[in-house]
Design a protein that fits this description.
Layout: E1 2-3, H1 9-23, E2 27-34, E3 43-48, E4 51-52, E5 56-57, E6 68-74, H2 79-92
Helix pairs in contact: 1-2
Length: 93
């Protein structure tokens, strides 16, 4: 999942809450950097099934790319489903 514009934290958090509630056992690993509205550095996010590690705002980006990038390792979850869910939640925020 990549985004070229800053993401509102509530949109990402609600999207992940929904994925964990509905498909938690199939979320094998989710990890990445988010460009969150109002944050100076990237926000590191990590999830495993129903477990969400607390997000951590880092002091600097690891490179010049400030694009949000989150990797989803899943079972029986299509990429399109994840993209559509986040697009729908972001449209509501």
């Amino acid at each position: 999942l990549t985004e070229s514009t800053p993401m509102p934290w509530p949109a990402f958090a609600k999207g992940m809450d929904t994925l964990m509630a509905l498909l938690g056992p199939d979320l094998l690993r989710v990890k990445g950097f988010l460009d969150v509205e109002g944050c100076q550095g990237p926000v590191l996010v990590q999830f495993v099934q129903h477990l969400a590690h607390p997000p951590v705002e880092l002091t600097a980006w690891p490179d010049i790319n400030r694009q949000s990038r989150v990797v989803f390792i899943t079972r029986n979850i299509l990429e399109r489903q994840v993209r559509d869910l986040f697009a729908a939640v972001r449209a509501l925020v």
